[in-house]
Amino acid sequence: MGSNHFDGDDEEPPALVSAENPLNLEELQLSKAPITIVTGYLGAGKTTLLNYILTEKHSKKIAVILNEFGNSSDIEKSLTVQRDGQQVEEWLELPNGCICCSVKDMGVAAIEKLMERRGKFDYILLETTGLADPGNIAPMFWLDEGLKSTIFLDGIVTLVDAANIIRTLEDREAFSKDEAGVGMTTAHLQISHADVVVINKADLVTREEIEVVKQRVAGMNGLARIIVTERGKVDNLEEWLLDLKAYENVGELKTAIKTQLDETISTVSLDLPELDEEMLDSLDAWIRSLLWEVEVPSPSKEPGDRVLGDSSKQPILDIHRLKGRAITKTGKALLIQGVRETFEIFDAPDQNSAIKAQGKLVLIGRGLRDVDVKESLEWFLSRGRAGWTRER
Ligand SMILES: Nc1nc2c(ncn2[C@@H]2O[C@H](COP(=O)(O)OP(=O)(O)OP(=O)(O)O)[C@@H](O)[C@H]2O)c(=O)[nH]1
Ligand SMILES: [Zn+2]
Hints:
Keywords: Chaperone, GTP-binding, Hydrolase, Nucleotide-binding, Zinc. It comes from Choiromyces venosus 120613-1. It is globular, with a radius of gyration of 22 Å. The N and C termini lie far apart (60 Å). It contains 12 helices and 16 strands. By secondary structure, it is α/β, with parallel strands linked by helices. The strands form 3 sheets. A 9-stranded mixed β-sheet has the order 1-4-5-3-6-2-7-10-11, sandwiched between helices. It has a 5-stranded antiparallel β-sheet with strand order 12-16-13-14-15. It has 2 domains: 33-239, Rossmann fold; 265-387, Hypothetical Protein Yjia, Chain: A,domain 2 (2-Layer Sandwich), CATH 3.30.1220. Bound molecules: guanosine-5'-triphosphate (GTP) and zinc ion.
């Protein structure tokens, strides 16, 4: 196969929306291309999966961005810093209309540049390096959602190597330690942020072993949907890899937790009562307390006290992912989305179906098993606005 080379310079002017002829918001949203971030530990099968997609027959025009030439672990940096047009891009056009690209130091700007050739692409898949922490990458796309951006984050897919993942999760040597000495592996981070987990290399293990891996993954991330593959062969691409809308909707919020097998990462699902204005403010304040101040408010630990300050014994709470749905007493449905410290509460796009569902808040992260978030939230909501009087 031959490859076409383009230099990084503009060959066509960017398709900007002129001020005289603005698109309306809806049109603009429709014209944005969804980007799926594909993560997974070293050698899990990311490239294999993407190659499979590129060569399969399907009617989608997909742009695949591989990192094969990238230095491991520098994608986080390159996504923000390399905006100087210095990137060397390599392209490969495939017979099925897909395009494959491997770029050293690929940045958001470079991906948007790629989208200047849009019309060609229905979807973009981005392979991160095996050591990348998706928690750093996701918010860049998510927050870059402004009018100018031509791409939006559709979801995070994490591949795990069925034969090696348990060992990887238990390799204490590989745990990176924070100040409090609490650690975890990159694999933990990749699983906790996933919207879909692909358990790959099924051919290398027994059915029983796959079950063990499934349980382990579900115990950590109760929201992620799980699929088992060989050589990344995912039959229904749209269901599993494209059109995930993971940051737009919150799904059914059904958590598939049976037992918590992993000590590090776990999922907690909380029911929310119907909320009035005050309670909604309280919910917002409660989430801020957890995400920004790493505090779990309780009657004995007023907001503002360092609840988890005694780091000798206390676990370090670290919420990686948060999803929820809140129903107001006035009959409105709101959705809650969070990645690390970033979160938003917004009107559910589909009010009719959202309004029928139970209000819920699902938290995925570290240290959750050691604190009673349920009690804390119930108490905090019951206090009303008066419960949050301290200066923030
Ligand atoms: N037996 C088996 N081997 C697989 C499967 N999927 C991928 N492999 C092999 O595993 C190795 C690593 O696959 P890659 O697709 O390069 O993995 P990757 O996640 O892109 O690796 P990095 O980019 O280095 O992190 C290759 O030799 C693949 O051929 C599978 O389902 N079964
Ligand atoms: Zn790869």
